[in-house]
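Hi all, posting the design record for the shared folder.

TITLE: backbone redesign
STEP: 1 of 1
STRUCTURE INPUT:
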């Protein structure tokens, strides 16, 4: 039986998604630790894209960024997966927990989950991936978010790929310093 990941538990069905991955030459635990609180400001591209979108850029480590933007660390399964999420009613709002997220289908217009997942590959590397899933609750949300997604998706993809590269570089640099 295939393992159920947190992202599947919270949002098994979705309207839009984006997935990226990279192989890292470090054990899963090391990669996960680096992913948990990496510094987004190591990428000038990420900082520039965040500024253009009006996102906060003062505290750019992952956990501070999550807090500053109103996202929620929903659940963690060390060292395999961390799940971040939010929902949108009229604006981004934090989530209280699993029951809150699952029960709230009427007042939320859009539900979003975003993960970092670490898996050991057959050759001993770690496959680090990130996936974003978006569920539009009603047809109007699907149309409006779909238009937004059409514009933002290429930049979102570039940001995710840079994030994965930062984590890979950080994790592999640990090797040489240990």
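Okay, here is what came back for every position:
SEQUENCE:
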């Amino acid at each position: 039986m295939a393992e159920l990941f947190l992202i599947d538990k919270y949002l098994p069905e979705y309207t839009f998604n984006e997935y990226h991955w990279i192989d890292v030459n470090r054990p899963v635990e090391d990669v996960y630790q680096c992913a948990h609180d990496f510094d987004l400001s190591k990428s000038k591209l990420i900082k520039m894209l965040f500024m253009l979108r009006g996102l906060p850029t003062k505290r750019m480590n992952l956990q501070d960024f999550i807090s500053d933007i109103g996202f929620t660390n929903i659940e963690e399964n060390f060292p395999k997966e961390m799940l971040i999420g939010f929902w949108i009613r009229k604006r981004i709002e934090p989530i209280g927990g699993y029951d809150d997220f699952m029960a709230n289908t009427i007042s939320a217009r859009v539900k979003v989950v975003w993960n970092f997942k670490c898996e050991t590959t057959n050759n001993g590397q770690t496959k680090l991936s990130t996936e974003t899933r978006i569920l539009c609750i009603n047809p109007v949300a699907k149309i409006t978010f779909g238009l937004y997604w059409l514009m933002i998706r290429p930049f979102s993809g570039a940001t995710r790929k840079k994030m994965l590269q930062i984590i890979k570089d950080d994790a592999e640099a640990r090797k040489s310093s240990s």
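COMMENT: Strands lie at 16-24, 72-77, 81-88, 92-93, 110-120, 126-136.
Let me know if anyone wants the other runs.
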